[in-house]
Amino acid sequence: MKKIFFSLMAAGSVMLLMLASCKKDETKVYSSLGNAGNLTASTTTPALSKPTAENTAVTFNWPATPVSGSAGNVTYTLQVDKKGNNFKLPREIAAAGTTTAVKVGDLNKALLNLGLVIDAQAQVEVRLKSSIAPNTDAAYSNAVTLTVIPYSAAGFVYLPGAYQGWSPATAPKLESPLDNKVYDGVVTVPSTVTNFEFKVATKPNWDESFGGASGQLSASGANLVFPGTGTFKLHVDLNSFTYTITKQ
Predict the structure, then answer these.
(1) Which UniProt keywords apply (predicted)?
(2) How far apart are CA 53 and CA 56, in angstroms?
Protein backbone atom coordinates (compact mmCIF):
# COMPACT_ATOMS: atom_id res chain seq x y z
CA MET A 1 0.00 0.00 0.00
CA LYS A 2 2.83 2.36 0.84
CA LYS A 3 4.35 1.83 -2.61
CA ILE A 4 1.02 2.56 -4.27
CA PHE A 5 0.57 5.70 -2.11
CA PHE A 6 4.02 7.07 -2.95
CA SER A 7 3.52 6.26 -6.63
CA LEU A 8 0.25 8.19 -6.64
CA MET A 9 1.95 11.10 -4.83
CA ALA A 10 4.74 11.18 -7.40
CA ALA A 11 2.31 11.04 -10.29
CA GLY A 12 0.27 13.83 -8.73
CA SER A 13 3.34 16.01 -8.32
CA VAL A 14 4.28 15.51 -11.95
CA MET A 15 0.76 16.44 -13.04
CA LEU A 16 0.85 19.60 -10.90
CA LEU A 17 4.18 20.60 -12.40
CA MET A 18 2.85 20.01 -15.90
CA LEU A 19 -0.28 22.06 -15.18
CA ALA A 20 1.82 24.90 -13.73
CA SER A 21 4.08 24.80 -16.75
CA CYS A 22 1.10 24.93 -19.09
CA LYS A 23 -0.36 27.83 -17.12
CA LYS A 24 2.90 29.75 -17.44
CA ASP A 25 3.01 29.06 -21.16
CA GLU A 26 -0.56 30.28 -21.51
CA THR A 27 0.37 33.68 -19.98
CA LYS A 28 3.19 34.25 -22.47
CA VAL A 29 1.31 36.18 -25.14
CA TYR A 30 3.47 38.17 -27.50
CA SER A 31 2.69 41.21 -29.67
CA SER A 32 4.28 42.07 -32.97
CA LEU A 33 3.83 44.85 -35.48
CA GLY A 34 2.72 44.31 -39.02
CA ASN A 35 3.93 46.38 -41.96
CA ALA A 36 3.40 50.13 -41.76
CA GLY A 37 0.98 51.46 -44.35
CA ASN A 38 1.41 54.13 -47.00
CA LEU A 39 2.27 57.60 -45.71
CA THR A 40 0.82 60.52 -47.68
CA ALA A 41 1.24 64.29 -47.36
CA SER A 42 -1.25 67.06 -48.15
CA THR A 43 1.55 68.98 -49.89
CA THR A 44 5.17 68.34 -50.80
CA THR A 45 6.06 72.04 -50.93
CA PRO A 46 4.96 73.51 -47.59
CA ALA A 47 5.25 77.29 -47.27
CA LEU A 48 7.24 78.29 -44.19
CA SER A 49 7.47 81.72 -42.55
CA LYS A 50 7.79 83.03 -39.01
CA PRO A 51 4.48 85.00 -39.05
CA THR A 52 2.63 81.74 -39.87
CA ALA A 53 4.49 79.59 -37.33
CA GLU A 54 1.23 78.44 -35.67
CA ASN A 55 -0.44 77.51 -38.97
CA THR A 56 -0.45 74.01 -40.45
CA ALA A 57 2.44 73.42 -42.83
CA VAL A 58 1.50 69.91 -43.97
CA THR A 59 -0.92 67.18 -42.90
CA PHE A 60 0.23 63.56 -42.96
CA ASN A 61 -2.14 60.59 -43.21
CA TRP A 62 -1.60 56.84 -42.87
CA PRO A 63 -3.55 53.66 -42.08
CA ALA A 64 -3.23 52.15 -38.61
CA THR A 65 -0.29 49.78 -38.29
CA PRO A 66 -1.67 46.29 -37.48
CA VAL A 67 -0.67 44.49 -34.28
CA SER A 68 -0.79 40.70 -33.92
CA GLY A 69 -0.96 38.89 -30.60
CA SER A 70 -2.14 40.81 -27.57
CA ALA A 71 -3.65 44.21 -28.21
CA GLY A 72 -1.05 46.91 -27.76
CA ASN A 73 -1.00 50.67 -28.10
CA VAL A 74 0.95 51.77 -31.15
CA THR A 75 3.03 54.92 -30.77
CA TYR A 76 3.50 56.93 -33.95
CA THR A 77 6.36 59.32 -34.67
CA LEU A 78 7.20 61.28 -37.81
CA GLN A 79 10.90 61.20 -38.62
CA VAL A 80 12.53 63.94 -40.73
CA ASP A 81 16.00 63.76 -42.27
CA LYS A 82 17.97 65.21 -45.15
CA LYS A 83 17.14 63.53 -48.45
CA GLY A 84 19.55 60.69 -49.14
CA ASN A 85 20.75 60.42 -45.53
CA ASN A 86 18.78 57.19 -45.01
CA PHE A 87 17.40 58.47 -41.70
CA LYS A 88 20.75 58.07 -39.95
CA LEU A 89 20.14 61.12 -37.73
CA PRO A 90 16.45 61.95 -38.03
CA ARG A 91 14.63 64.63 -36.10
CA GLU A 92 11.28 63.49 -34.69
CA ILE A 93 7.82 65.04 -34.48
CA ALA A 94 5.14 63.42 -32.32
CA ALA A 95 2.16 61.99 -34.17
CA ALA A 96 -1.13 60.39 -33.12
CA GLY A 97 -4.03 58.41 -34.54
CA THR A 98 -3.86 58.10 -38.31
CA THR A 99 -3.40 61.77 -39.16
CA THR A 100 -1.23 64.60 -37.87
CA ALA A 101 -1.16 68.26 -38.87
CA VAL A 102 2.40 69.56 -38.45
CA LYS A 103 2.71 73.25 -37.61
CA VAL A 104 4.97 75.54 -39.61
CA GLY A 105 7.08 76.29 -36.54
CA ASP A 106 7.51 72.62 -35.60
CA LEU A 107 8.59 71.61 -39.09
CA ASN A 108 10.94 74.58 -39.35
CA LYS A 109 12.51 73.70 -35.99
CA ALA A 110 13.22 70.18 -37.23
CA LEU A 111 14.80 71.59 -40.39
CA LEU A 112 17.05 73.95 -38.44
CA ASN A 113 18.07 71.12 -36.11
CA LEU A 114 19.14 69.19 -39.21
CA GLY A 115 21.51 72.05 -40.02
CA LEU A 116 19.73 73.21 -43.18
CA VAL A 117 20.69 76.64 -44.48
CA ILE A 118 18.22 79.42 -43.74
CA ASP A 119 16.44 80.86 -46.80
CA ALA A 120 17.91 78.16 -49.07
CA GLN A 121 15.79 75.51 -50.79
CA ALA A 122 16.43 71.94 -49.69
CA GLN A 123 14.80 68.53 -49.78
CA VAL A 124 14.02 66.36 -46.79
CA GLU A 125 12.37 62.98 -46.38
CA VAL A 126 9.64 62.15 -43.88
CA ARG A 127 8.61 58.67 -42.79
CA LEU A 128 6.33 57.23 -40.10
CA LYS A 129 7.78 55.17 -37.26
CA SER A 130 5.37 52.77 -35.50
CA SER A 131 6.34 51.13 -32.21
CA ILE A 132 4.61 49.29 -29.36
CA ALA A 133 7.33 49.32 -26.69
CA PRO A 134 10.78 50.80 -26.08
CA ASN A 135 13.73 48.77 -27.34
CA THR A 136 11.58 46.67 -29.66
CA ASP A 137 11.64 46.50 -33.43
CA ALA A 138 9.70 49.34 -35.04
CA ALA A 139 7.86 49.41 -38.35
CA TYR A 140 8.57 52.15 -40.87
CA SER A 141 6.49 53.54 -43.71
CA ASN A 142 7.56 54.75 -47.11
CA ALA A 143 9.42 58.08 -47.24
CA VAL A 144 7.74 61.23 -48.55
CA THR A 145 10.01 63.92 -50.02
CA LEU A 146 9.33 67.56 -49.12
CA THR A 147 10.89 70.60 -50.78
CA VAL A 148 11.37 73.28 -48.13
CA ILE A 149 12.93 76.68 -47.48
CA PRO A 150 13.62 77.06 -43.73
CA TYR A 151 13.41 80.50 -42.18
CA SER A 152 15.25 82.07 -39.27
CA ALA A 153 13.31 81.45 -36.08
CA ALA A 154 15.67 83.57 -34.02
CA GLY A 155 14.38 85.41 -30.99
CA PHE A 156 16.07 88.34 -29.29
CA VAL A 157 16.46 90.15 -26.00
CA TYR A 158 17.69 93.73 -25.75
CA LEU A 159 20.24 95.28 -23.39
CA PRO A 160 19.32 98.92 -22.72
CA GLY A 161 21.56 100.67 -20.24
CA ALA A 162 23.34 103.84 -19.24
CA TYR A 163 26.11 103.04 -21.71
CA GLN A 164 23.72 103.69 -24.63
CA GLY A 165 21.11 106.07 -23.21
CA TRP A 166 18.61 103.54 -21.79
CA SER A 167 16.93 103.06 -25.18
CA PRO A 168 15.57 99.51 -25.78
CA ALA A 169 14.81 100.32 -29.42
CA THR A 170 18.49 101.01 -30.19
CA ALA A 171 20.09 98.66 -27.65
CA PRO A 172 22.42 95.78 -28.58
CA LYS A 173 20.68 92.40 -28.90
CA LEU A 174 21.39 88.86 -27.79
CA GLU A 175 20.15 86.14 -30.16
CA SER A 176 18.40 82.83 -29.61
CA PRO A 177 18.77 80.99 -32.97
CA LEU A 178 16.00 78.48 -32.19
CA ASP A 179 13.90 80.94 -30.18
CA ASN A 180 14.16 78.67 -27.13
CA LYS A 181 14.71 81.47 -24.59
CA VAL A 182 18.48 80.91 -24.48
CA TYR A 183 20.32 83.98 -25.77
CA ASP A 184 23.95 84.78 -26.51
CA GLY A 185 25.84 87.75 -27.86
CA VAL A 186 28.65 90.24 -27.46
CA VAL A 187 28.36 93.82 -26.18
CA THR A 188 30.98 96.55 -26.10
CA VAL A 189 30.88 99.17 -23.36
CA PRO A 190 32.74 102.31 -24.56
CA SER A 191 35.77 103.49 -22.61
CA THR A 192 34.05 106.83 -21.92
CA VAL A 193 31.24 105.20 -19.91
CA THR A 194 31.24 105.59 -16.12
CA ASN A 195 27.77 104.18 -15.32
CA PHE A 196 27.71 100.44 -16.07
CA GLU A 197 24.09 99.65 -15.21
CA PHE A 198 21.76 97.92 -17.70
CA LYS A 199 18.73 95.65 -17.94
CA VAL A 200 17.51 92.78 -20.12
CA ALA A 201 14.35 93.63 -22.08
CA THR A 202 12.32 91.01 -23.97
CA LYS A 203 11.15 93.55 -26.57
CA PRO A 204 12.59 96.77 -28.03
CA ASN A 205 10.54 98.65 -25.41
CA TRP A 206 9.96 98.60 -21.65
CA ASP A 207 6.97 96.21 -21.64
CA GLU A 208 9.00 93.55 -19.84
CA SER A 209 12.51 93.75 -18.44
CA PHE A 210 14.74 91.99 -15.93
CA GLY A 211 17.37 93.07 -13.46
CA GLY A 212 19.09 90.99 -10.82
CA ALA A 213 22.46 90.10 -9.36
CA SER A 214 24.89 87.23 -8.84
CA GLY A 215 23.82 85.40 -11.97
CA GLN A 216 20.09 85.46 -11.20
CA LEU A 217 17.49 87.47 -13.13
CA SER A 218 14.33 88.94 -11.64
CA ALA A 219 11.58 91.20 -12.95
CA SER A 220 11.82 93.15 -9.70
CA GLY A 221 15.61 93.04 -9.46
CA ALA A 222 17.95 96.00 -9.37
CA ASN A 223 19.80 97.07 -12.50
CA LEU A 224 22.43 94.65 -13.74
CA VAL A 225 26.01 95.93 -13.87
CA PHE A 226 28.81 95.42 -16.38
CA PRO A 227 32.19 94.85 -14.66
CA GLY A 228 33.59 97.91 -16.43
CA THR A 229 34.38 99.03 -19.96
CA GLY A 230 35.40 96.73 -22.80
CA THR A 231 33.84 93.87 -24.72
CA PHE A 232 31.76 91.25 -22.93
CA LYS A 233 30.14 87.97 -23.90
CA LEU A 234 26.68 87.63 -22.38
CA HIS A 235 24.57 84.51 -21.92
CA VAL A 236 20.94 84.85 -20.81
CA ASP A 237 18.62 81.91 -20.09
CA LEU A 238 14.99 82.94 -19.56
CA ASN A 239 14.01 79.34 -18.81
CA SER A 240 16.09 79.31 -15.62
CA PHE A 241 16.31 83.13 -15.32
CA THR A 242 20.08 83.11 -15.14
CA TYR A 243 22.84 85.09 -16.84
CA THR A 244 26.60 85.26 -17.19
CA ILE A 245 28.92 88.10 -18.23
CA THR A 246 32.41 87.19 -19.42
CA LYS A 247 35.13 89.68 -20.35
CA GLN A 248 36.48 89.04 -23.85
Answers:
(1) Signal
(2) 8
